[in-house]
User: Which sequence fits this backbone?
């Protein structure tokens, strides 16, 4: 499932929503397919009842089951997900060496945790413990495919 947008705010009294699509063209949406919003960790499907583009990356829409201002306010700030977009093939980093910004070895990637919006890496440390580190493009200092080394700017307190 791929994150495709976000509910920015409610619009009107009848459950209208202002949606943002920063990473996709709203014209690429299949309006017959559901979008998903996570509630209690589970994806709940919603179908578009109306959809009107506003500029290049926004739209006004109504979704099934959201028919009041109160319903709309419950989903404001939530991410929209779809399962029909082709996801980028992810590089398997298992076995790669992780270093911190100083070049010190932190450990070896043993697995990853695909938390929506927050992919994390399980790193086995030299002392045998494991640590879960965020894997976000803003934290990647370098990625060397030849040597299988990933250098991260690790936020203070995670190790």
Assistant:
């Amino acid at each position: 499932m791929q994150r495709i947008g976000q509910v920015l705010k409610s619009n009107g009294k009848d459950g209208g929503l202002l949606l943002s699509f920063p990473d996709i063209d709203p014209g690429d949406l299949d309006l017959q397919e559901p979008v998903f919003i996570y509630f209690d960790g589970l994806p709940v499907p919603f179908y578009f009842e109306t959809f009107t583009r506003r500029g290049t990356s926004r739209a006004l829409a109504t979704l099934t089951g959201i028919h009041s201002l109160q319903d709309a306010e419950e989903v404001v700030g939530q991410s929209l997900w779809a399962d029909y977009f082709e996801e980028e093939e992810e590089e398997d980093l298992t076995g790669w060496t992780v270093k911190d910004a100083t070049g010190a070895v932190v450990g070896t990637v043993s697995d990853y945790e695909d938390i929506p919006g927050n992919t994390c890496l399980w790193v086995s440390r030299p002392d045998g413990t494991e640590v879960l580190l965020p894997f976000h493009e803003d934290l990647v200092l370098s990625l060397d495919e030849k040597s299988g080394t990933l250098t991260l700017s690790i936020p203070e307190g995670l190790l």
The chain has one helix and 13 strands. The first strand starts at residue 2 and ends at 11. The chain has a mean pLDDT of 90.
